[in-house]
TrEMBL record:
Entry's Gene Ontology molecular function annotations: enoyl-CoA hydratase activity
Biological process per Gene Ontology, one example term: fatty acid beta-oxidation
Pfam families: ECH_1
Protein name: Enoyl-CoA hydratase domain-containing protein 2, mitochondrial
Family label: Belongs to the enoyl-CoA hydratase/isomerase family.
Keyword field: Lyase
GO CC annotation, single: mitochondrion
């Protein structure tokens, strides 16, 4: 996905009705020794980092349970859409654990430190509407008979992104992600570097031409 130039947006969905991702298999985990658990969680954390580092926008379609590592997967995505009935939570403390695949870092960056601490300390599960009210998800929708309402809404969101200039979108994601980790002056410098990379693109010229000619732009990602 990282190197496929045809990919514009990635949507993560589950093929299991009622479950986005239920997290680790604790029965499997119970068979591991301490070293194996540490190695397993490190690999999982690396996977989430790889997902977060994808250059194109990513959307998690949460149509059911997203618990523990499942919510960490959704947090590694840029955008999240959930059904009203979805259940989300970093429930690790209820099992004698703490989030180990990015949850302690990505949740506070998403909803703020106070709410993140409350959700992690209590291990509470919340539904789609509660998640929307605290800014954990971008959109929430009533579930449909097929059980894929969040996925359908995620596709609609993806289709809003698709017509836009691909390289500009990638640079926008990079500027936001890198800029959020530094002070605002450094962030401005990062934005300037990303903008400079976009200036010589054909898509920028196409955008200007389309505006002058009063027609929809035809972006190619070049």
């Amino acid at each position: 996905l990282r190197f496929d130039e045809k990919v514009r947006v990635v949507v993560f969905k589950s093929e299991v009705k009622g479950v986005f991702c239920a997290g680790a298999d604790l029965k499997e985990r119970a068979q591991m020794d301490d070293a194996e658990v540490g190695h397993f969680v490190k690999r999982l954390r690396n996977l989430m980092d790889e997902i977060a580092a994808l250059p194109v926008p990513t959307i998690a379609a949460i149509d059911g349970y997203a618990l523990g590592g499942g919510l960490e997967l959704a947090l590694a995505c840029d955008l999240r859409v959930a059904a009203f009935s979805a259940k989300m939570g970093l429930i690790e403390t209820t099992r004698g654990l703490l989030p180990g695949a990015g949850g302690t870092q990505r949740l506070p960056r998403c909803v703020g430190i106070g709410l993140a601490k409350e959700l992690i300390f209590t291990g509470r599960q919340i539904d789609g509407q509660q998640a929307f009210s605290m800014g954990l998800v971008n959109h929430t929708v009533p579930q449909n008979k097929e059980g894929d309402a969040a996925y359908q809404r995620a596709l609609t969101l993806a289709k809003e992104i698709l017509p836009q200039a691909p390289f500009a979108v990638k640079m926008g994601k990079l500027a936001i992600n890198r800029g959020m980790e530094v002070d605002i002056a450094s962030g401005m410098a990062i934005e300037g570097m990303c903008y400079a990379q976009n200036i010589p693109t054909r898509d920028r010229q196409e955008g200007m031409a389309a505006f002058r000619e009063k027609r929809p732009p035809q972006f190619t990602g070049k």
